[in-house]
Design goal:
The chain is α/β, with parallel strands linked by helices and about 350 residues long. The protein has a domain at about 1-240: Spore Coat Polysaccharide Biosynthesis Protein SpsA, Chain A (Alpha-Beta Complex). The protein is built from twelve helices and eight strands. Strands 3-2-1-4-7-6-8-5 form an eight-stranded mixed beta sheet, with helices on both faces. The structure holds guanosine-5'-diphosphate-alpha-D-mannose and manganese (II) ion.
Length: about 350
């Protein structure tokens, strides 16, 4: 199923025109929001990276929203600001740790730009990222945009980058049809007007994907652009990070459609079909893998079935030889673990 979907999208949709009025000369004010919790190792690079953007400096405003970090994050920000006094940088300090979704909702009341860009503290953007991203917002149908993604550090970087190449094609192709429900806080640009009208979704889960899906259900487009690039490191425990992200993705697929119908003006569109396929891929498909593997092992061990042996052998060879398949298989396992873990904790704060 995933392969058929991938081939279909790549052959039929990936090279389609955008059907968006792109204006290269559009230069709106941009408000960048970076939430931080104990980011003293990354925050300086993040600020430097914003300054290196090829976008008029006077149009960029930065909010750091810090949730009571216990490390040197705020001191690093202060030192950086002393060296860059011309920057429009503001710091919001939350008295306690409240999670990322709450943090990004804070500065919205002060943001001066019509475009908000959320960027995690550990992300690095391509130098043209803002410039390439805003041109899509010249068209009022675009509500949100996320970057094509890569990893710049971390032990499992190679497997993940191989998987991401395949993932990026899916996201861009879905975006050409209408929207993709899978966005990333590494770089997510949002039209402020949308947030003023509909607010942020307010349940636990991946705020980035929830915002994208919510926006698409209301009828705007939530796209991943193939010419905007951003990078993140893999840090901390690989298993924990992957399972947490899977938990959040599952919550998004279980909650956002209902939420949009209840809290906003749900609009039927081509996005519904994309949603259904992705819903299947995230909610059902991982369990098919588990059930089929179980049945094959049972057939092999208890019934000595030769077909089961052959199928398992084919799967094993592809698993060993093909990195993408390996990445995808692990992803299914993370999704299965995530369902079980979601019963214990929703990981709103990590
Ligand atoms: N202010 C604030 N308060 N910021 C926080 C908090 C908090 O309680 N918790 C995390 N953050 C910040 C981090 O400092 C970082 O800038 C950003 O949120 C993302 O956290 P990471 O620790 O880098 O997590 P990630 O790389 O796995 O994040 C990805 O997955 C998350 C969902 O599981 C991103 O795509 C996030 O956007 C997404 O929320
Ligand atoms: Mn991160």
């Amino acid at each position: 199923m995933p392969l058929v979907y991938y081939w279909y999208l790549k052959a039929r949709c990936f090279n389609r025109p955008w059907n968006i009025r792109i204006d290269e000369s559009y230069r709106p004010n941009v408000t960048i929001i970076t939430p931080t919790y104990n980011e003293d190792k990354f925050i300086q690079k993040r600020l430097d990276n914003i300054c290196e953007q090829r976008y008029p400096r006077e149009l960029v405003e930065i909010f750091i929203v810090d949730s009571a970090s216990t490390d040197r994050t705020l001191e690093v920000v202060k030192d950086w600001f002393v060296k860059h006094p011309e920057t429009r940088l503001k710091v919001i300090r939350e008295p306690a740790r409240t999670g990322k979704m709450h943090a990004i909702s804070e500065p919205l009341k002060y943001a001066s730009g019509p475009i908000i860009i959320v960027g995690d503290a550990d992300s690095l953007w391509d130098r043209n990222a803002i410039k390439e991203a805003v041109k899509y917002f010249a068209d009022s149908s675009v509500g949100a945009l996320t970057a094509s993604l890569g990893y710049y550090a971390g032990k499992q970087m190679d497997v993940e980058n191989t998987y991401r190449r395949f993932y990026n094609v899916l996201r861009a192709a879905e975006s050409k049809i209408h929207s993709t429900p899978l966005h990333s806080g590494v770089l997510q640009a949002i039209r402020k007007e949308f947030l003023e009208k509909f607010g942020l979704p307010s349940y636990p889960g991946s705020e980035d994907c929830a915002i994208a899906s919510y926006i698409a259900f209301v009828g705007y487009r939530a796209i991943q652009a193939d010419d905007v690039w951003a990078y993140e490191p893999l840090r901390g425990s690989y298993l924990r990070t992957k399972v947490r992200r899977a938990q959040h993705n599952i919550l998004n697929f279980l909650l956002t459609k209902k939420y949009a119908k209840k809290h906003a003006r749900y609009v039927k569109s081509k996005f519904d079909l994309i949603w259904r396929v992705e819903w299947y891929l995230y909610i059902i498909n991982p369990w098919l893998l588990v059930v089929c593997l179980g049945l094959m092992l049972y057939s092999l061990i208890a019934l000595h079935n030769a077909t089961a042996l052959l199928l398992l052998a084919i799967g094993g060879v592809i698993f060993a030889a093909n990195r993408t398949f390996r990445g995808w298989t692990f992803q299914q396992i993370f999704l299965v673990i995530a369902v079980i873990r979601n019963f214990r904790t929703k990981e709103t704060i990590w």
